[in-house]
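User: C-alpha cells for this complex, please. No commentary.
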Amino acid sequence: QKEVEQDPGPLSVPEGAIVSLNCTYSNSAFQYFMWYRQYSRKGPELLMYTYSSGNKEDGRFTAQVDKSSKYISLFIRDSQPSDSATYLCAMSLNYGQNFVFGPGTRLSVLP
Amino acid sequence: EAQVTQNPRYLITVTGKKLTVTCSQNMNHEYMSWYRQDPGLGLRQIYYSMNVEVTDKGDVPEGYKVSRKEKRNFPLILESPSPNQTSLYFCASSFLSRTEAFFGQGTRLTVV
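Assistant:
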C-alpha cells in the first residue's frame, strides 16, 4: 500500500461545477496537510495547508482533514477553466520538511 | 523576485555520462530537496538538506549524489546515469519554520 493515495483522474467537469479531490494516507503521525497545484510544464505551487483535523476556506477553495479516517479533501466551488491543472496532496510529520506527495489528480474544467 | 532556479530545463544524455543539475534559491531557505516526478508515482524525494553541509537520503536516493556547500545551492549529481533515471526532476526549498515549499521549474532528463 502506498503511503499516500489519490485518484489519478483525469477528471473533467463543466465550468461552474463543484469539484471534490481526495487523498487517503496510511501514516497516522502526519500532522501537516497541504494541497499543491501544478500547471503543465511548471513546478507545483502551494494552494492551501491545514494543521491536524478541521476545515480551512480560502475563496473558492476549501480544504478538509479527517485524521480519524486518514482522509483529506479539497473542494473547488464555481470551478473555472483556469483551475485546470494537476492537484497534488502532500503531508508531513514536521513543519517545513520531508513532504510526502500523492500521485496527483489531473483536472480539466471545460468552458 | 523570490525563486528557485534549476538548470538546465531539458537535457538528453547517454548512459554513463556524468551530469549535474544545478539548483539555486534566493530566499535564504534552510531546507532544500530534490524530487523526481514519474507518471502514476507522483513526486518522490531523492535527497534533502536541512542546512549547509547537512544532507540525507530521501525515498529514492540510489544513483544520485548531492552536496550543500553554500546555503543557496543544492546541485544534483548523476555519476553514471541510466535509462531508468529518465524523469522530470524538481528542486524545492523551504523554511524549516513554515509549511510552504517553493519549487523550481523542473528539469526534463532523458537518458538514452
